[in-house]
Design a protein that fits this description.
heterodimer, A: mainly beta, 7-stranded mixed β-sheet, 4-stranded antiparallel β-sheet, 11 strands, B: mainly beta, 12 strands
Chain lengths: 113, 112
């Protein structure tokens, strides 16, 4: 069974460019999460969806960040414009139900120069 | 609001030493409790979980955790660590609402 699939795995981009990270959750899971991990701030929950509906986006750092989930099998996290301080590992994760085990993707390693 | 506190940010042990990582949470109701592990350069993976029943939970790779409701704690233990246990360990709690809250993580380094 395929796990959570993220793309790209690595991206290096210049400041000011738009970055789009993609995620395919595990089939049948109805909760999807976007996390950001840095050395300084640890693991931060940015936003999560339940049944494709954004439930809590209070962790989204600012308006430059946006996330969508147009259907049950796809989500995007967009940063526009990107800044060097956005450099981090972005994890997408899914869960079969609220409160159940969260399954993480391999992460998208973003470097903004 | 819920919160999760992991007492140690960094732990250094020698191989064969015993391990205990502390985790406390703040939520008075029913909770689901988790420990996740992140090996260097990898994503988080579930180590063990507690939903109900026996408060002593056994997970993969010889890890176990004990839920003590009166202390709001869910400490992770392993009797004898190995070099391959070097990783970051995250405690997580799901109480009321949708969110699962993760602790700040504890970095374990095991000396060979």
């Amino acid at each position: 069974d395929a796990g959570v699939i993220q793309s790209p795995r690595h991206e290096v981009t210049e400041m000011g460019q738009e970055v789009t990270l993609r995620c395919k959750p595990i089939s049948g899971h109805n909760s999807l999460f976007w996390y950001r991990q840095t050395m300084m701030r640890g693991l931060e929950l940015l936003i999560y969806f339940n049944n494709n509906v954004p439930i809590d986006d209070s962790g989204m750092p600012e308006d430059r960040f946006s996330a969508k989930m147009p259907n049950a099998s796809f989500s995007t996290l967009k940063i526009q414009p990107s800044e060097p301080r956005d450099s981090a590992v972005y994890f997408c994760a899914s869960s079969p139900a609220v409160g159940n085990t969260i399954y993480f993707g391999e992460g998208s390693w973003l470097t903004v120069v | 609001a819920q919160s999760v506190s992991q007492h140690n940010h960094h732990v250094i042990l020698s191989e064969a030493a015993s391990l205990e990582l502390g985790c406390n949470y703040s939520y008075g109701g029913t909770v689901n409790l988790f420990w996740y592990v992140q090996y260097p350069g990898q994503h988080l993976q579930l180590l063990l979980k507690y939903f109900s029943g026996d408060p002593l939970v056994k997970g993969i790779k010889g890890f176990e955790a004990e839920f003590i409701k009166s202390k709001f704690s869910f400490n992770l233990r392993k009797p004898s660590v190995q070099w391959s246990d070097t990783a970051e360990y995250f405690c997580a709690v799901k109480g009321g609402g949708f969110k699962t809250i993760f602790g700040a993580g504890t970095r374990l380094f095991v000396k060979a």
